[in-house]
Model the fold of this input.
Amino acid sequence: MISPITKKTAVKIKKLEIQGARNIAIAALRAIEETARKSKAKTMGAFLKEMKQNCEVLVKSRPTEPAMRNGLNYVVKKLSNTKHVSDAKGLVRKGCEEYITLMEHAVEKIAEIGSRRIKDGDTIMTHCHSSTVMGIIKKAWKDGKKINVICTETRPRFQGRITAKELVSFGIPTTMIVDSAARYVMNDVDLLIVGADAVTADSFIVNKIGTSQIMLAAKEARTMSCCACETFKFDPVTLSGEWETIEERDPKEVWENPPKGLKIFNPAFDFTPPQLVNFMITELGIITPYETGMIILERYGKVV
Amino acid sequence: MISPITKKTAVKIKKLEIQGARNIAIAALRAIEETARKSKAKTMGAFLKEMKQNCEVLVKSRPTEPAMRNGLNYVVKKLSNTKHVSDAKGLVRKGCEEYITLMEHAVEKIAEIGSRRIKDGDTIMTHCHSSTVMGIIKKAWKDGKKINVICTETRPRFQGRITAKELVSFGIPTTMIVDSAARYVMNDVDLLIVGADAVTADSFIVNKIGTSQIMLAAKEARTMSCCACETFKFDPVTLSGEWETIEERDPKEVWENPPKGLKIFNPAFDFTPPQLVNFMITELGIITPYETGMIILERYGKVV
Amino acid sequence: MISPITKKTAVKIKKLEIQGARNIAIAALRAIEETARKSKAKTMGAFLKEMKQNCEVLVKSRPTEPAMRNGLNYVVKKLSNTKHVSDAKGLVRKGCEEYITLMEHAVEKIAEIGSRRIKDGDTIMTHCHSSTVMGIIKKAWKDGKKINVICTETRPRFQGRITAKELVSFGIPTTMIVDSAARYVMNDVDLLIVGADAVTADSFIVNKIGTSQIMLAAKEARTMSCCACETFKFDPVTLSGEWETIEERDPKEVWENPPKGLKIFNPAFDFTPPQLVNFMITELGIITPYETGMIILERYGKVV
Amino acid sequence: MISPITKKTAVKIKKLEIQGARNIAIAALRAIEETARKSKAKTMGAFLKEMKQNCEVLVKSRPTEPAMRNGLNYVVKKLSNTKHVSDAKGLVRKGCEEYITLMEHAVEKIAEIGSRRIKDGDTIMTHCHSSTVMGIIKKAWKDGKKINVICTETRPRFQGRITAKELVSFGIPTTMIVDSAARYVMNDVDLLIVGADAVTADSFIVNKIGTSQIMLAAKEARTMSCCACETFKFDPVTLSGEWETIEERDPKEVWENPPKGLKIFNPAFDFTPPQLVNFMITELGIITPYETGMIILERYGKVV
Amino acid sequence: MISPITKKTAVKIKKLEIQGARNIAIAALRAIEETARKSKAKTMGAFLKEMKQNCEVLVKSRPTEPAMRNGLNYVVKKLSNTKHVSDAKGLVRKGCEEYITLMEHAVEKIAEIGSRRIKDGDTIMTHCHSSTVMGIIKKAWKDGKKINVICTETRPRFQGRITAKELVSFGIPTTMIVDSAARYVMNDVDLLIVGADAVTADSFIVNKIGTSQIMLAAKEARTMSCCACETFKFDPVTLSGEWETIEERDPKEVWENPPKGLKIFNPAFDFTPPQLVNFMITELGIITPYETGMIILERYGKVV
Amino acid sequence: MISPITKKTAVKIKKLEIQGARNIAIAALRAIEETARKSKAKTMGAFLKEMKQNCEVLVKSRPTEPAMRNGLNYVVKKLSNTKHVSDAKGLVRKGCEEYITLMEHAVEKIAEIGSRRIKDGDTIMTHCHSSTVMGIIKKAWKDGKKINVICTETRPRFQGRITAKELVSFGIPTTMIVDSAARYVMNDVDLLIVGADAVTADSFIVNKIGTSQIMLAAKEARTMSCCACETFKFDPVTLSGEWETIEERDPKEVWENPPKGLKIFNPAFDFTPPQLVNFMITELGIITPYETGMIILERYGKVV
Done:
């Protein structure tokens, strides 16, 4: 039985009325919580079936959204040893609350942890615009560390400009470069921090196109590099061998009026292998990139 | 004694009325040839002094132009064992002619040699716009090789669009990517060819910003990479420890209206170390990148 | 007290009447299950002692067989907090069943997970003959992916021919090369999949001689490489510092009639360090090679 | 309420009357045990508060001492689900005993495990003086393995001489080199073993200055390298982004009477990244360097 | 005018009545010498034309034979500044003699030079069978150096057995391995010596399939590696961008009766890039692999 | 016929009455010049024989002195096409003068060239004490560049203290570290400059023990590294396969009173492979490390 709130939420997600990883996850969790609360299931079997069906509808409304998927799995996993529907309803409510709180605190926690890795006088480099990374840099600045930031412009959408504007508005000394100039200045960088859209079970970081290239240049120069990422972006479906799909975006982003016959390939993300990353900043703390698989295994259990 | 033609040419170069490495070199050589021809010097000492003074004026009109500098040195070096002014005048004329011919034939020769390294079905990647590289690609295409080309857009000036337009106009299947996507597609590339603005005595390639980053990604992927470059771009002043100056260009190229307080660093070139380059395509033939120093030593002699 | 079934099974294993990692493990587990069922021990102390003695006899019948060793340890470990012999007998039975099921499902599960990492049109390379790897390739083929496979001949025993025959019999386009040609064709390979005979606590993969050499060539070429391996091959004795023994095999395998005086060194396996492996395909899911130690620690507990 | 024993112990630690990682940890644990035993707290809340205050005083007496910090955390963490003060007191006593035993057994265990990785005839290299490493080498020697050891002199304090003296007194063939000669002899080394003062959550090894340089040379030569280290040196504060402070020591250690105006930089330790380490020898067993973060996470819980 | 001796020789080469790099080169040189001697050309123009036509016929009789091609070019190049036919005839005779002597002495010279790089007690590894490499090893052995040799069997044609037999017949302690075991034993090797069939202008070594893989393993282990090669195998056509063709040999060599449908790829050679080679042993002396291009340029002149 | 001056000079060199590479070379050249001047040889054959005999005596007086050996070879090589003794005597005199002048100017020239590679604000690192390197640093300082220098202490003989004293006496801000701290500070270094005692034909740099280790750390950190070296230290005997002997020095240098039974290995030099060196600063100009072989070949001719 698909509940009215599930249906409504799924539609809103599909129509992009709800968007942004965290907003989508919150909406889905609230839908499942209401579904559980209003459920008329008499037996645990029936209740579980209902939960799973509703989750499936929500997940299908945006398949490549690990934060939502992980949230729903987190809630459902709690029910495995429960015997009574009433207990189960309580666990669903508790699970949803926990997960939302987790997400809300994660960015804050990462800012706190990550900023400790920035030293007074450091030159930080970042790529694209990540609010998680911004949180770290701003926290370090507020703590009185005199840092300066080099940010790429991030073609084709220039998200680096958002980063630059925000940093400058805080008074943080900021230098912008074209993406291609990253290796050129790398020897002057103390810490390269990038965000992530997803992290796979085999520890590849999925982030804005160009990330892997800059991380490679950092490794060559022995510049410390890291990825700041909430663990709810660790994607358990990759445990089962699924591969993150790289969105291919509109060629117009690259060139408004290209000559006829020209093909433009415009991937949104790339994969950074773990050997190019020195450490991960997560809300659990600083970990090595190789530990994401264990955390996925522990949190979401084995492959179904 | 600075001749009228030297003065006139130097002014035109300074005012950018003459531009482009080859055009500048040709104009300077013609100026020096006329100066020699009309010289009234009676002794070799006087003639040599005059030649050197005129060369100096020309070189100073654009100090970072190795093609012109090399051309003038090539001519003057011929005079070292000459005893009579009349012989010397002949040698200047001969030297100028030889050098101009050398430059004229070099691009053509490189196209011929380089195209042999392209196999039917190859995917070629290039960065920025280099007429030397274009010559190679077009020769391979004319020879009936079914290739396709991936070109970067080359921020901030989008010279990759010139490359793309030209290739498409020839009917060559071409795909454009943003600079950041180079590593993403590298495993599908058979040969990466870049040009050069200058090559140093210790074999660093000076080319459009981003070159070293793409070459690094090619090395990581064991993709064959090369640099197509006329030897008159090998810069003998680097033998003496001079370092190529990297032009820092107008920030407006990167962002027309940046927020107040933002610094934009916009270097035009970067350095690619020889260990990232598999081979060089020169008009002398295919050589390794490590041989540029020997060629400079042999051609221009020791450090003065 | 060594039970009759233990004695009988141990003899059969020693005499190679039972062979193959999985068959040996199953026979040993069935022996221990029967031993437990028929045990006349009155106290847990006596029962545990009996179990351990019987396990020891079985393990000693083939010391370098991690699958059997792990299975017996898995069963015995379950008894640690049990107070009554009757409960313990139940746990032994349950443990044996679980472990056998685990092994039976593991290969199937790995085929399912691993095949998801193969894309339509991929060129797969493999070395030697591994039924785990074959499972993956055949699953991908059944799922309609148009792949082709490059297999080495695998000197000295030509196990690659078994691989080739099997693949060709399924209609999968297959190319054979001599072992030495692996690096030559590596740039055309999309995914290199090898199996494993054992994986150590410090994450070295023990597999057919030549594996590490091919994996090194894959790393150099940025070709994705992985190892498909059931976790019951992760060897807990390596946690205690024991090192996998590399079997040295009959020189006749290499050269039937060698000249007198020639020494032939014929190791059966080699060690591939984790930095040459991109990911592991296990029945738990895709993990990084560095996580084997944690899985051993968690599953088999600390060093005894 | 700070107990008299806590106060007394803290003073002794500050005054260096108690020194050495293990001695400090034992003294602190005994202080906290006595404090707990004599506590007059009526409620768990009060008891817990008292415990934490006393721990804080002890930790502050020497902030960069992970062994003590970990020991106290180990004890306090045990109290999280306890409801009665009497139970809690028992748990504190048990925790202290467990931890002291753990430390006492760890070095012994590591000697046993590590020595198994040494083969008859091996050449071992070590740097500085580590009793953990010495334990391994001496165990291997006692077990009859004919090894020989190369030890650096370890400037500026010549701790390598302590190592050399001790090894020679055992009759172990030993060769000393200056620190700079490590790469020169590396191709003749079978196993490089270093100790650790601390290991961070992102798996950097903090050890005597020069360690990272020698480990780099080992990696270049594919010489097996490892770090022998009790897990109580894994530092959980690094999980929160804290960075180990590298002590800068007296310049006189380097040069007694330097010329006026000369600055001498004399760091005591350096950081070795995990990619330069093949494996860790801990009392839990052989693990990869990348697993330290997971062990910290599991043992000490999340970041507070 | 094609001379009778040229015609006859060309036929013999085509029919494989003359074979082996050196024999072919000698026959061709003798043919051109006789042609010159008997020439009836009156002018230098006519003589030169005749020489070139005859050379062309000879070269075309076996196009991928650098030793012959180089020899003929060596002779013809001598004529460039000659004015009289009689002088030219003398130069041809002199050139032929010089080149034959050069080839005859080269192997001997390389044995002498190369053997100096072998130290008493060294373990040498080699791949395939190269008389140049054999010369080095045998010279070292005759000089009383107690060495031992590891040789690969070299699939698919087992040329390693020729190497093994020859070494054993000299009493040199020799161990054979399958090709795949090279990396396994590499840490025990002091010097890896391979031969070459050709060396390109960009310093890639063309040698028996598997060479690049073994050289890669040597580099990873910091084992000194070198290539022993007469400079007449340096191929000047690669200067012009021509690429050495890799002969694809009969699949039967790999598997006599393969299953129907199986493709067998059997390349005879591979390319080793110069960064995997420490030094070259040539008859000119020890050089780095990067100097082949300069030697080709100097010896054979610019690209025609 | 060995001349009196040759005999006298050889004795002085043997007795160390003349020492230092340049002084020895100058003395030997003056001896040979006097020998030539006073020669009573009537024929070129006799004269040449006399010259070679005298050179041999001088060379044998100190066999591992490339500067002297090269100087004498330089002089003798000039005589190869001479027909008259009187001309030959002139050539000997001229050769000696040229070579002495070359040596005298080389250090100065290198200072000039090398200092151009130092930029205002650079941090320079050096190892041991090299007057060639000091010349570069002092020239840069005199030219007004605000640099600072990090120097190692250079165990066991503390030559780094000579470097430090000299730099401080010039007012150059200088920091000393122990050799082991090089990698620790490497990310802050802009240019690492080392000297050389000899350079081999295959481009290995022979310099103070520890050089290769520091160069490796520089490469890892993409810190620019170079070697400053007069070309008369390029050693032509290495062309013939001879290997530079590494002097093993008195153990007392490492430890005055070592415990009985301790072996101390104290090599004076190590080998740095060319791939760890970005460029060479020679009096001919900046070259890559791979060009030393060509310069040896050109200057000293082929292997005899």
Notes: Chain E has a mean pLDDT of 90.
